[in-house]
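Appendix C reproduces, verbatim, an entry submitted by the partner laboratory led by Prof. M.T., so that reviewers can inspect both the input and the predicted structure.
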Amino acid sequence: MKISELTPDIVKDYCGISDDDSDDIIEKLLLPAARKYITGYTGLTAEQCDEHEELSVACMVLVNDMFTQRDYTVSMHRQVSPTVKTILDMYAVNYI
């Protein structure tokens, strides 16, 4: 599945989110933010991201993290999920 094909229902099913009121926040805030994070991290365009279906898993993991971790302050030891980092690193073209 392509990142552009992800819907709130697909994300909620993958993440185990049962809140029916979360569709709007997932569609209008979290999915766009996760997609932007992926394009910024990898340096790929949205169209190029759609060529790699495993990036949709990284996108859903990011959405889940954004949905469940809403604290203003975070632990200094908090890091990006190793799964997400590995998937994104496979396609990163901007080695800054």
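Residues 3-91 form one domain. Additional entries are available on request from the coordinating office.
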